[in-house]
Here is the input.
Amino acid sequence: MIDASKDSIAHFQMWWLLYWHAVLAVLVLCQTSYVIYRYAAYFWPCFFALIPAVFAGAWLWYCAAYPWETYRYTLTVNIETDGKAVSNSSTYEVRKAKTPLMYALSLGAPGSSYRTVVFGEAIYFDVNGKPLLFTMAGSGEQNAPTSVSVLAYKVLRFGPTKLVELPPFKKATAEKIGAAVPIGQLPRAITFMDVDDPGSWRHIRRVVDYADTLGPNFVIQSAHLQLTTEQPGWPELPGHLPWLRSRAWIFPIGIRETTSIVTRADTLNKGALINGYF
Here is the structure.
């Protein structure tokens, strides 16, 4: 019962983060409609109330005309350390919507015609006392760590555009079709030198680096992706990394990785670890 209540709270948080502006527009429309009705005999009150009413109505039309396209999947990673098999997973909700207004305001800037939002959290492992996280971020390169926002596109090969509009994809979702994920295409992996210090994170850049970082007896056995209709539930990651809540203010500007063996600066944002929750 408690877990179900937490999941319901998480689902509300995701909904609110997506639609708070539409709720505000409805409230504005209701308030201005009351003003126009109450002061119908007066020109200026009605005129000034009509302006925000028009904007609110236009925004609601915009939201309805360009809705979110949504799909969900569960990513499972199987590892082995010191001869012991461990399996962990995370469910992701990927939403994509056309943004012609942003495209026009940005004068056609690349990437501004669509907006993509991913809800979920990184996959967490405890490897002999050292954390291992498969984040939600990728490198954007071929045959390299892949962001969870496009991982289903690449693994299931349903095409690069209008994924959720394809009948095969809808059928695959209903049947919970899945596929193996190449180890090299798993999302970006990181660890922390000190689990209590968010600034101590390190990027595990190559498959061969896993053993160097986590020990010679560590190996990733396999990974699997499966479409689902279930939403992400209450996040578990803050239980492993409490500073995600207590020191979340650090993340919007990024945490910079500092290590003498890395020649270029690298940053990690909170959205790569957890997103969709207050």
